[in-house]
Structure formats: structure tokens, C-alpha cells
Design goal:
Order of helices and strands: HEEEEEEHEEHHE
Distance between the termini: 8 Å
Strand content: 25-35%
Radius of gyration: 14 Å
Structural class: alpha+beta
Helix content: 10-25%
Number of helices: 4
Largest sheet: 4 strands, antiparallel
Shape: globular
Number of domains: 1
Mean pLDDT: 91
Number of strands: 9
Oligomer: single chain
Strand order of the largest sheet: 3-2-1-7
């Protein structure tokens, strides 16, 4: 059994409702461990403590307004065998540091959030 925080609590506490639905991707790497899929400037990498947050909603760039779909974007970037998960779900194996992600100021940290694996209860 995994101990988890309530999804509604995190959505309200961190005001994440405008980003829903959100997805992240976990990938098994060569040593067999799971790492977060991250977006670098022009590539995708894996990291043990950071994970790309694919969120939904309106976004703006020099090309204009875009409508993002976090579920479709995460699935598009996932490979066969990757885990596409809702990090807010009660059965999510990870906890995201939502406070650091929302307060981030750098390009990399606005795309990728710190995370850790939840500990299983004994």
C-alpha cells in the first residue's frame, strides 16, 4: 500500500486547477531504476529527481496562443514501456514538489519539477 496525499488537497493547496489534467512520464533506465522524463532546451532526458510536467490549458509564445493537452503531450513523448501517470492521483508512485515548480523562474525549472518516490507503508 502506498501512502499518498489527497488529490483534492494538492489541487486546492497549490491552485493547480488551471493546469488540469496534468501528466508525467517515468522511464526505466539502463540500471533498472525509474527516472523522470525531462525536457531540456532542445532534447528529452531522464533524471532521478526531476520530471517534466505536461499540463493543460492556454499557453502563449511568439507564435501566439496555444491550447495544451497534458495527457496527449505526455503520451506523445512516452516510449513503449514508459509509465504515463497522473501525479495527483492517490495511487501515483511519486510526490511532486508543487511549491518549487510553481515558484520557479528558470526555463528548465518551469518545465521540470523536483519529485521523489513515495515510500510504501509497512
Amino acid at each position: 500500500m502506498i501512502i499518498s496525499e489527497d488529490k483534492t488537497f494538492n489541487v486546492l493547496k497549490y491552485d493547480l486547477s488551471r493546469y488540469l489534467p496534468i501528466r508525467v512520464v517515468l522511464r526505466k533506465v539502463d540500471d533498472g531504476s525509474l527516472q523522470g522524463l525531462c525536457e531540456d532546451s532542445f532534447s528529452i532526458s531522464t533524471m532521478p529527481g526531476n520530471i517534466r510536467i505536461w499540463w493543460s490549458g492556454k499557453a502563449y509564445s511568439f507564435l501566439g496562443e496555444h491550447q495544451l493537452n497534458g495527457i496527449e503531450d505526455a503520451e506523445y513523448n512516452a516510449r513503449e514501456g514508459d509509465l504515463v501517470i497522473d501525479p495527483l492521483a492517490d495511487d501515483s508512485p511519486i510526490e511532486v514538489d508543487w511549491d518549487r515548480w510553481l515558484k520557479s523562474t528558470g526555463k528548465y525549472s518551469k518545465r521540470n519539477a523536483p519529485f521523489r518516490f513515495k515510500e510504501a507503508s509497512k
